[in-house]
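Run folding on both entries below.
>entry_1
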Amino acid sequence: MSGALGRGSVATRLPAQDLERARRFYSEKLGLEPFDERPGGLLYRCGDSFFAVFQSTGVSPGTFTQMGWEVEDLDAVVDELRARGVRFETVDAPGFRTDEHGFALVEGNYPSKHSRGERAVWFRDSEGNLIGIGQPVH
């Protein structure tokens, strides 16, 4: 690690036009509760990482993955989220496309570490943010 940023940590921030709607989505659909909250923002903790959802007047373009999880058992996570009402997106991009079950094999993709790629799915939160979930392929 060199440079000041190499010694820092990364935090994802997702915009929300309606913070209460976003709070309900993250609670009801994803089973997450805020770790901390302040006026205009919610902070969530997942493992050793954090992400924030903040009140914004801007609209997410939803044209690219804005945040992603890396999980050990993608099938189990998808089953749980589908049971909670999460709808997964069809994402077709150069080099991959989602299959009839909503999964894509993304060869050589980061952020999966120490793997040759990942199996992945995508969904949108209540605010239109495109969120991915991946499982490393070894």
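>entry_2
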Amino acid sequence: MKMVWILAVSFLFFSHASCTNPGLKVRVTQKALEYGRQVGIQALQQKLRQIQIPDISGKTHVPVVGHVHYEISGMRISAFNLPGSAVGFYAGTGIKLSIDNAYIHITGHWRVKYLFISDSGSFDLSVSGLSISEVIAMTRDDTGRPAVHSAGCTANVGGLDIRFHGGASWLYNLFSSSLENPIRSSLIREICPKVSDAINGLERHLKTMKISSHVDKYAEIDYSLVNPIAITNTFMDLDFKGEFYNAAQHKEPPFSPPPVSLSKQADHMMYLGLSDFFANSAGFAYYGAGALHLNITDDMLPKHSPIRLNTSSFGNLIPQVEKLFPNMLMLMNLHAKQQPIMKATPNNITIEVWGAIDTFAILPNSSLAPLFVLDICASVSMKMAISQMKLAGSLKLSSKTSQWISTSKCGSLKLCQPTPEGESGCFSDCD
């Protein structure tokens, strides 16, 4: 007995330990289920209308009269209404769908034989008080895709009202009461398989669902499920990997996702939780792919900007620039020196970036002459909130450091000019 308890505790421990922190967490609430019910119930109604009711034949013994042989054929559902339905979470399993007071209208043909007398005609059958209860189990398959299957279905039929057309009423009244149980049993046998078929159709769709996609030529994102779907009586949590990869090579970053927690509120249909791992894995992937760089030229600046990206404009700040390269356009290459880092807290997001700006003069032959390099390290803090379906926030530059790259003895700005021999002649503002 002691060994059993040890094994049970060990199982619980390792089950908990094997849980992986997601980069992206989604919580689905009852409000989302209600929205989905409106769409899903219409699809289910169309599916149930496809029920094929097999022909029924038999004989029944009528007192005094004797045996009456009957055949019911060509039964077709002409109407299937589901006025009352409810959907909710089924803790630990999935979703429970309940349908009450459904109504079915069926048409068909009848034939009866009694002694040497035979007759035939058509009929209308109204089925009321139909109820269906279906539990849809939701889990994660081995590929990280969501999976669903039927975990239990029950169906019950209330009252049946048959109205015959054609033939002699005294004849079909002999067997009308004998049809109720066969038709009820046939409907009950056919309903649950149709519901399961609708669920299987969804499962086939889920098996083809993409769990990763290319963002652009530099990166792709993996959004497979990393944990089994957690389901309570009020919400469902889905843990997605939420990790960016370098498109050229899948390389894990040197950091792991932290735990993601969401509010217990259920005022909205869905809640989204993003950890800083989501953004940092993107920074790691793009930096590794060499994508974090940008060339800035004068034509990219607003036309009304008082500062232009040319040596004449920069000459007001650095006279040597205009002196060495008069009336020339400039190009700035902004690039990261290491991956940007985002740190998220409940009330604040901080982004730290390290980069450099290589500045060039564009010579008449379109070649570039290096001017100076500006190293930049900045920390930006953001506070965001959603108000009236709009994302709002404030931005604050927490800290900023920059320096001019220089190799001159006086430690100030160094300007370089190519010589006719192809070498660079350099001048500093202390020369």
